[in-house]
Design brief:
The protein has no helices and three strands. With 75 residues, it is mainly β. The chain has one domain. A hairpin with a 4-residue loop joins strand 1 and strand 2.
Amino acid sequence: MFTANSKGKVIDSQIQLDLSYNYRFNEGLTNVNFTISNLTDEEPPFARLDLNYDPFTHNPLGRTFKLGVVHKFAE
């Protein structure tokens, strides 16, 4: 027997808050970047797809942190 499931027919909206801080020092030769993606740790909305979310527009990882350091050496 087939049961129709209307859940996921319309994908709910999601607001994701990202925070990024960039700091330059050493006369502009060194750049440090710290980023928090999905600060509020929102789960992606349910969608009737293989992964139960829309992988083209959402990320299932939740809150993630990224640290980047770039240094330019004098020539």
